[in-house]
Amino acid sequence: xxxxxxxxxxxxxxxxxxxxxxxxxxxxxxxxxxxxxxxxxxxxxxxxxxxxxxxxxxxxxxxxxxxxxxxxxxxxxxxxxxxxxxxxxxxxxxxxxxxxxxxxxxxxxxxxxxxxxxxxxxxxxxxxxxxxxxxxxxxxxxxxxxxxxxxxxxxxxxxxxxxxxxxxxxxxxxxxxxxxxxxxxxxxxxxxxxxxxxxxxxxxxxxxxxxxxxxxxxxxxxxxxxxxxxxxxxxxxxxxxxxxxxxxxxxxxxxxxxxxxxxxxxxxxxxxxxxxxxxxxxxxxxxxxxxxxxxxxxxxxxx
Amino acid sequence: xxxxxxxxxxxxxxxxxxxxxxxxxxxxxxxxxxxxxxxxxxxxxxxxxxxxxxxxxxxxxxxxxxxxxxxxxxxxxxxxxxxxxxxxxxxxxxxxxxxxxxxxxxxxxxxxxxxxxxxxxxxxxxxxxxxxxxxxxxxxxxxxxxxxxxxxxxxxxxxxxxxxxxxxxxxxxxxxxxxxxxxxxxxxxxxxxxxxxxxxxxxxxxxxxxxxxxxxxxxxxxxxxxxxxxxxxxxxxxxxxxxxxxxxxxxxxxxxxxxxxxxxxxxxxxxxxxxxxxxxxxxxxxxxxxxxxxxxxxxxxxx
Lengths: 303, 303
Fold this sequence. Notes:
In chain A, the strands form three sheets. Chain A has an eight-stranded antiparallel β-sheet with strand order 4-5-12-11-13-3-2-14. The first copy, chain A, has a five-stranded antiparallel β-sheet with strand order 6-10-9-8-7, with no helix packed on it. Chain A has one domain: Cyclophilin-like (Cyclophilin, Beta Barrel), CATH 2.40.100.10. In chain A, a hairpin with a 4-residue loop joins strand 4 and strand 5. Helix content of chain A is about 15%, strand content about 25%. Chain A starts with 15 loop residues before the first helix and ends with a strand. Chain A is of the alpha+beta class.
């Protein structure tokens, strides 16, 4: 049901049982996966098994899932998606500049039917683990960078060989909501729609990111208003028309996306240029630093 | 025509001629201005002379102008607004996660009719100058903070008594666009609609910020699409229905806004709490740092 990406092989966060599944399915999915992270490949094709089509009343959105970083969350989200669980649910908590959150009615039978998930907000890295570095001494992390087009934070251990890494809450990331307890996420999820709430890093599980149609996420009806303004009627909340794995969408309606390969030399060059700001527009140079959440990762539609 | 806020008195960026105007108008505007930045006042009422009503086809937006930081830009923008200059112009450069930019047709007679503006992107501070501090060693600035609800960066001079301060490009800020030359802005302006492009700080003049209806700015039609997608027809670009100084709007249609007084003890307390993250939700504490662009400044509608 879920295609495991080859990249997951060296992911130390993976549980033993998932590793077994992976061993069995790796060969089968080599082609379906379609990932090409070689240094000379500017673009990376997204697997249809690993891509979600979210249809909103006002537009279509494509999400890339991140099973290499949060396999259990992706597995559950994919399964619910295939069951049509999210169809007709509402974005019931939408705060401008912060998040757009959706899910079934709190405490309903449907809501309680879904198993709770163990946190997958960060993972241990070994000395073979690599990423594309962006910035040292970022306000929220010792190091920032990208892996597989996902923005991340990294903190080395004292031994210098191992460390901890985590996906970071940039605009467009998709994460699972939870109650106060760490391992209390189930089906409710949110998109980040404003300035990166990095204080949620490492305590919320990010499991995907928007790769197409982010403007439609930004147009979701806000549910919270400023004091003194008219409340928004819940009947006006934005509903999910449907949520489908792209591989389950009829061929004619599939949206095929490629994203910038952040492991490429091309991307590394782009980071160097972005930091240097050599264009004549910069008559005075900004500090030579990069906010990992302010580096747009390009997508292109190939079909 | 433009109400000068009392706070401007101690703004060293102000030109001599504007100071003269201020001296003449200060008494007159004491009441119209309505600012109350005393430490025990949680809210600050916005002057109708210093507030702009932007009517979009899909909603109403209120902008607070910042004459105390960029008087010349505010004067020109206000004058153009009162002339109906922006009515029916389009948001012709709208890039998701970055900016929504509007203005007259490039190179048109209307476009060329507007005087160029000298940059007002930063100002010198003296030792009496104060602000509400937020964070040291921010990625882009030695210090960050707020003054009059505007986010800013600050860098002390070697003498420790003086320094430079600048408004910073948080989501919702309004700034004047320009060509490559520093002093080439005239009438084209942009809203920041994504992760703060802080590399534009100090080289672009910010002159206001959205205090109401930001969700409508986020819903402006994007004009740039991903590669391989259908181009957006220019007839579908979002048009400005009207742009008016709030004081010129008929009473029944005025929107009166108060914003959080960032000079208040209440706000200082809120910063302490936000940094500490003491709620049970934070089962593991994030780093005790604050991104100045990720601190929502509350607004409320009072009429």
